[in-house]
Write a structure and sequence with these properties.
mainly alpha, 2 domains, three-stranded antiparallel beta sheet, 10 helices
Length: about 230
C-alpha cells in the first residue's frame, strides 16, 4: 500500500523543544498545527490524506526549515513527514539536502519524498522531482552503508592486529623485541581501554599508578609488570 494511504499512528501529546527554541511562536504554531491535523483511524490517532489537506492549508513553504528540525522529536516525526509532504515542490530540495547533510535520517527522507510523490494535491512536476530525489537519497544511503561497512572492516582488522601484537608482547624475548614503539603503545592503550581507563582522562591514584607501571613495562620494556594488568 502506498505511503500516502497508510494511516500512521502517532500518539503525540508531549513533545520536546525544537532547535528553534521552545518559546519560538512559529515553531509553537507549527507543532499545534501538526497535532491538530491528526485523525482517528482503525489503529488510533494518526495521520492520513485529510491530514495532508489540512496541513497544506495551514502551513507554508517558509515553515519548511522548522519542520526539518522536528524530525529530531520522535513524537512528531511522522507528523513532520506529512507536514513537509503537504508543501509539495518546495519541500523536495529541503528534504534531499537535509538527508545529504546528515540532518535527517535517510529512511525518514525517503518516506517523506514518497508521500510527496503520491500526494495528488501536488503538481505532477513536483511529484516527479520527489521521485528523482528519493532515488538520490537511496543512493546516498547505500553509499553511507558501504562506507560504514568498510570502516567496520578496517577497525576489526586493526583490532585483530593489536591483539596479535599483544600476544607477542606477552611472550617476551625476541618476539616482543620485534614490535616497534608505536605498536607497543597501541597494545598499552588497548589494555587501558579494556580496564575502563581513559588515557589522558581522570584517574584515581591507584589507576594512575597502574597505568604508569603498565607503560613502563609494555612500552619501555622495563621488568616488574603488574600481574593485575591484562595482556592486551
Amino acid at each position: 500500500m502506498h505511503a500516502r494511504r497508510r494511516l500512521l499512528l502517532s500518539l503525540a501529546f508531549a513533545v520536546s523543544g525544537p532547535a528553534f527554541g521552545a518559546d519560538d511562536p512559529d515553531t509553537a504554531r507549527i507543532r499545534s498545527t501538526i497535532l491538530h491535523s491528526r485523525q482517528m483511524g482503525a489503529h488510533g490517532l494518526g495521520y492520513g490524506d485529510r491530514s495532508l489537506d489540512e496541513l497544506s492549508r495551514n502551513l507554508r513553504p517558509a515553515d519548511i526549515p522548522r519542520l526539518v528540525t522536528l524530525f529530531s522529536d520522535r513524537e512528531l516525526r511522522v507528523g513532520a513527514q506529512f507536514a513537509l509532504a503537504s508543501q509539495c515542490g518546495p519541500a523536495v530540495a529541503a528534504v534531499r539536502d537535509a538527508a545529504a547533510g546528515g540532518r535527517m535520517d535517510y529512511l525518514d527522507a525517503s518516506d517523506t519524498l514518497d508521500l510527496v510523490s503520491g500526494n495528488g494535491r501536488c503538481p505532477e512536476e513536483a511529484r516527479r522531482r520527489a521521485r528523482d530525489a528519493a532515488a538520490e537519497v537511496e543512493s546516498l544511503r547505500r553509499d553511507h552503508q558501504a562506507r560504514a561497512a568498510e570502516r567496520a572492516r578496517l577497525e576489526k582488522e586493526d583490532d585483530a592486529r593489536v591483539q596479535r601484537n599483544g600476544a607477542l608482547l606477552m611472550q617476551g624475548g625476541a618476539q616482543a623485541q620485534s614490535l616497534s614503539r608505536a605498536e607497543r603503545e597501541e597494545v598499552y592503550r588497548r589494555s587501558l581501554k579494556a580496564m575502563g581507563i581513559s588515557e589522558g582522562g581522570p584517574m584515581t591514584p591507584q589507576q594512575k599508578d597502574l597505568a604508569e607501571r603498565m607503560y613502563r613495562s609494555m612500552v619501555l620494556g622495563e621488568s616488574g609488570r603488574s600481574s593485575n594488568a591484562p595482556p592486551y
